Amino acid sequence: MMDLEMVVENFIAGVMVPCKRTLDSYEPGTGKVWAKIPDSGTLEVNAAVAAAKRAFPEWSGLPIQERAKHLLKVADLLEKRLEEFAVAESRDQGKPVWLAKAMDIPRAVLNLRHFAQTVPNNLNTSNVRTDAGVVNYTVREPVGVAGLISPWNLPLYLLTFKLAPALICGNTVVAKPSELTSVTAYMLCKVLQDADFPAGVVNMVFGTGPSAGEALVSHPEVPLVSFTGSTATGKHIAQVTAPMFKKLSLEMGGKNAAVVFSDCDLDACVNTLKRSSFVNQGQVCLCTSRIFVQRPIYETFLEKFVDIAKEIKVGCPFSQEVFMGALNSKPHLEKVKKYVKYAVEDGGSVLCGEGVDLLILPEDNKQGYFMRPTIITGLDDNSRCMQEEIFGPVTCVVPFDTEEEVVKRANNSNFGLCASVWTSNVGIAHRMAHKLKVGTVWTNCWLVRDLNMPFGGVKASGIGREGTQDSMEFYTEAKTICTKIA
Description:
By secondary structure, the protein is of the alpha/beta class. The chain has two domains: 6-252 and 461-484, Aldehyde Dehydrogenase, Chain A, domain 1; 256-456, Aldehyde Dehydrogenase, Chain A, domain 2, CATH 3.40.309.10. It is globular. The chain has helices at residues 42-61, 64-80, 82-93, 97-118, 155-168, 183-194, 209-217, 231-241, 266-278, 298-310, 330-345, 384-387, 403-410, 426-435, 468-474, and strands spanning 6-7, 10-12, 15-17, 22-27, 32-38, 129-131, 134-142, 145-149, 172-176, 202-204, 224-228, 247-251, 256-260, 288-294, 349-352, 374-377, 394-400, 415-416, 418-422, 440-443, 458-459, 462-463, 476-484.
C-alpha cells in the first residue's frame, strides 16, 4: 500500500489542470490524509463549462454508434483495471475491497456498456403520422452541457450512472464528484485519456458543494443538472435552478422500510435484511432503516437478527473476512453515533452495536471511522431515529399487528425511495406493493436492479427517474417535426 499522498487535478478540455487551492482527503480506514483534492470554484467551473460548450457541436453531431464505441472502449479499459480501482475506492470511501470488486467497479463498467448498447436502438424510434396532408414525427436531441453531481457513498458506481446516458445521448459534461471521494473519478479521467476520448466532452471539477457545486448548478450555460445526495442539498439546488428553468433530476434521501409478515421465510428474510441494513456500512440510499415485524414472530425475529448482526466482522477494509469497513468521514461517524444517543433519549433500547458491543481494531485502523452494526427497539414512529435519515449501520425494529396498520405506519415518512415486503402470501404482497408510497418495492428480496426499470423516489426522496428510458428522456429534448406533403 502506498503511503505517499495522491494529488488529484481537475480534468478540463482533455488535460489535467492543477489547482492552487487544495483540500485534504482522509482515508476512512486509517483516519490519515491520503490525497490532496482541488478546492475548485467559479474560475475552474467556468473553464470546464467553456470546454464542454466548445466540444458539444462535434460530439452531438457524431453518429450515435460512434459515441457508443467511445463509451465501450472506456468500459473495456476500466474493466482491465478493476483491481486498481477497487483498492482506490476502498481507501477513498471506507468500504471493504471485496465489495468494491464485486459491486462498485463492475457496476460502473455495466453502466457504460448498458447505455452504450441500449440507447442507440431506442433514441429516435417514434411514431410517424400522416394527417391532413402532413407528416408528423419526433426526434430526441441532446440538451447541451450537463452538470452532474455525484455522492460519496458509491462514488464511481453513481458517477457513471449519470455519465453514460448523458454522453450517449450527445451531451457534453461537467461533473463534480464528492470532495470526500474524488480519487476514482480522477483515475477515470486518466482512462478517458488512454481511450482517446474527445477532448472537452467530459470535464471533472473537484471541490466542495458551496464552492464548485454552487458555481456549476447556477451557471447560465448549464441547462441540465443531475444530482444525487442529501435532501437538504437537493432542495437548495431546486431553489437555485428553478428561476433558470433548468432540467433537473434529484435522487435524494430515504428512510426505507421493511415489512415482515409472520408467514415469511424468516431465515431468508433475516439474512437479506442483514445485508440491506449494514452493507457498505449502511451508507446506501436504499438501505433499510425501519423494520416492521408482525407481532407473532417479533421476538423470534429480534433474536435471530441480533445474533446475525453480532456476528458481523467490522474492521480493516483490506480483510476478506470483514463485512463492514469504515464510515466515510469522522463528522459523519459522529453524526451517526449521535442518533444512537437520540434513540436512548427518546426511550429506545440498543440491543447491539454502538455503546453495547466492544469494537476491537488492528493497530493501523484504530484512528479509522468504524462502528458496529446497531439495532434499536422501543421507539415511537415519530421519534428522530424513525423519521430522519441516519445513513449509517443503524436500524430500528418495531412490531405491528395488521396489514392496514403497517401501511399507514410505513408511509408515515417524508421520504419515499424504496421498501421491501416479506411474505409468502401473493395477495398481501400485491396489495402492499400498490399501497406503499415509494419508488421501488421489493418482495422477498432487496436491491435486485434492472437498469431498464425506472429508479427514483417520491416525496423528499427525489424528482425524476433514472434508467434506460427515463435517462434517455431526461438527457434529451423531444422535438416534433411537421412537414406538409400535399
